[in-house]
Sequence to fold (324 residues):
Amino acid sequence: MEFTTPRKVHRYSFGMKLKLSKRGDYVVRSALCLANSYDAPNPIKLRQVSVDMGIPRTFVSQILGDLVQAGIATSFFGANGGFRLTRPPSQITVLEVVEAGEGSLESDTCVLGDDPCQWESVCPMHETWTAASAAMRAELASTTLATLVERDRLITAGEYHVTGHRQNPQAPTVELTDSVHVERDLARIAQRLNSGGAWLIPHLDAARDDGEAIVMRIGPGDSHWLTKTVAVHLGESVSGPNGFVVPIRWEATGTAGLFPRLVGTLSVSEIDPERCELTLSGRYRPPLGRAGQVLDDTVLTKVARATFRSLLRRLANALEDDQD
Fold:
């Protein structure tokens, strides 16, 4: 039987590697951010989505607009305006979210050409490709945003096990507590920390580099260990008898392997009217090396301690130098 294949090959919006486009990536991240904040009293601001999820500020309004147009999110105006999901995360499928950014994952053209795959001229790939596409859409449709939120929680806690034979090795983490004194009054520190987390990014970058310098010196790393911080989040502060506590989370993206991440709390307690103690408690996970190396316990602990100490020292200096 003779069959002529058209020269130009059609590709899905996912690409042959089944990878989200940058727009699709940002749409999924934004939906996750809104899902995590679904029970918050006020809608989420554009700038919070941008900072929390590492989405460029100039692009985030378009991304959230995609979710609004798809009926996944709604916007509110005014002083307390922002964005929130139109339905609970358990009622929104990942398929809806992906298609909000990528467009329909159902192709109306032949996988081996640009024209519709008609029954009178069906190509040899038609049935296989149609079945594979249907299976992918079914998997995405069976997963909800609530599932992704729960997975993210477990991953953050180091309790999630990825199934499959091609997974990256799980990097170990270390839990630490460290503290420094700050020559600033409690009210001024609270005002600065409640102003958002964007100002922390250069300090986090520098602290991470200080810790990973140890890896470059005595560990299995090289220049590929150096990464760029893409997201930092300070949660709502909770008042205590002698100060307050702020949840903190930051993470970076690397050229390969798992990215470094710090999840914990920043506690501020008053020592006297002009001095406070700043305590960082949490769990730090360094990145994997270019070849997927995992740090041994000794190097891991040194990296984590250096990162914690450097971050606290830099935060104390920034708060003491703050004249706003």
Remarks:
- The longest helix spans residues 297-321.
